Automatic annotation (TrEMBL):
One of its GO terms (molecular function) is 4 iron, 4 sulfur cluster binding. Keywords: 4Fe-4S, Iron, Iron-sulfur, Lyase, Metal-binding, S-adenosyl-L-methionine, tRNA processing. It catalyses: N(1)-methylguanosine(37) in tRNA(Phe) + pyruvate + S-adenosyl-L-methionine = 4-demethylwyosine(37) in tRNA(Phe) + 5'-deoxyadenosine + L-methionine + CO2 + H2O. InterPro entries: Aldolase_TIM, rSAM, rSAM_sf, tRNA_wybutosine-synth, tRNA_wybutosine-synthase. PANTHER family: S-ADENOSYL-L-METHIONINE-DEPENDENT TRNA 4-DEMETHYLWYOSINE SYNTHASE (PTHR13930), S-ADENOSYL-L-METHIONINE-DEPENDENT TRNA 4-DEMETHYLWYOSINE SYNTHASE TYW1-RELATED (PTHR13930:SF0). It holds the Pfam family Radical_SAM. Residues 85-100 have a biased composition (Polar residues). It comes from the Eukaryota. This is tRNA-YW synthesizing protein, putative.
Amino acid sequence: MNSEGSLGNEVYNGNASHCNSGSSIGIGCSSDANNSGHSANKRKGIREQDECDSNNCEQSTRIISSESRSNGEEEGEEYSYSSSTDVGTSNKTAMTNCSSGDEMEDLVSGEPKDMLSINQRNKLTKEGYKIIGSHSAVKLCRWTKSHIRGRGGCYKHTFYGIISYQCMEATPSLACANKCVFCWRHHKNPVGTKWKWNKDNAESIVEQSVKKHQGMIKELKGVQSVISERFTNGMNIRHCALSLVGEPIMYPDINKLIDELHKRKISTFLVTNAQFPEELKKLHKVTQLYISIDAPNKEALRNIDRPLFKDYWERYITCIKILKTRKERSVFRFTLVKEYNMMCEEILGYSKLIELGSPDFIEIKAVTYCGSSEGYQLTMKNIPWHEEVYQFAFHLINSKQVLSDIYEITCEHKHSCSILIAKRVFKINNKWCTWINYEKFHLLVKEKKDFTAIDYCLETPSWALIGAPERGFNPADQRVYTKGKNKVKNVNVNIPIENDASKGGAP
């Protein structure tokens, strides 16, 4: 396997390029005045005005301070958690794009009601969500459909051995405490700072989620190139990504839901936006726990995540500290947005957060463009190339000696512009072990043993490693191009099914 330095020259036509302040990290970072000025305007003087129906909510305007962002914590700033949940003026201004209709419901006193209005339910249903009860949902991931057709799995398949065609994407809480600018749900879900809605039974949510997911799999029967054996196995759900939309740990019975999934031998990847530290402390062990690291400092976090909590930064830092104390596999997830959160001068701020949380893995992924809508601000110019994602990863782990001693770039999934950085402790006998032994995990949970991330790791296949010619695409599948000169039409897929469990995937 090539080292990062050689990879930079051989794969990406140049090692990590020198970055100048005010420029986004990427290929050919330059000090061009126009580029720097444009980025500075994005960073320092953004005025966000979202057109809202005055009958539904007040139009809000936020002018971000013209002072430059800091490189992390401010001098003398205490990293502590304030228990206050007051929603102040700054919180209200964060609730832009009120098209979903019920986004201030957590501010209204009274008896609990259903989380979703009829309008919200209709919008989410129209976009393919299968609503469960009053506050949960599932949706079929495009990578599940791709993998069941033998056209490749998602980056989690490459990095961790997830079998994408046996993966269910779900949430027990459609509500969230942020309104992130890059949210690919286009802000059609409700928001809130605490649970004030009717609560559905955890066992019922899991049962209905499984049934509705299986129903969506059944709809693929007869679709061209669907592999019959994968179609059959796809009905047997082995993994749940609790990251569909909203904030899963807002759901009061999240631990009961996790336990129910594990009873069914369904592994769990849970993603939190780091705004609920008390809930995070009480969370039962999951297979892999994520924190979304969207910005390196307070002002940037306000700009990108548009949080409702007044003490959003303190909550963010406290959650990062809590992650360090957890014993299951932990991940920092970076979603890179050009001109928003991948500036050269922000690297040191990110490195401080990594030292604070000490995650086992760092996922760095380019934001996915989701088309235009009233509530979605991004354009294609905000989407990084895969090479730029790699450059960011390289600069990040080499920004401090302490990081380069602990972490190494390990895997890539070029198709989704994703890079994985792992702690060197997962390099066992000179072989990377980023994949998960799911059977071992379920056994450890069942026996109620105190275990760590190393206890259920598994060797990573060579095709998933950085520098491999496959670039993270499983050679057991067939890449199908639908655009450009490589476009393939009417591909007949006849791929032998391998024993995925023997390579780390769930059976």
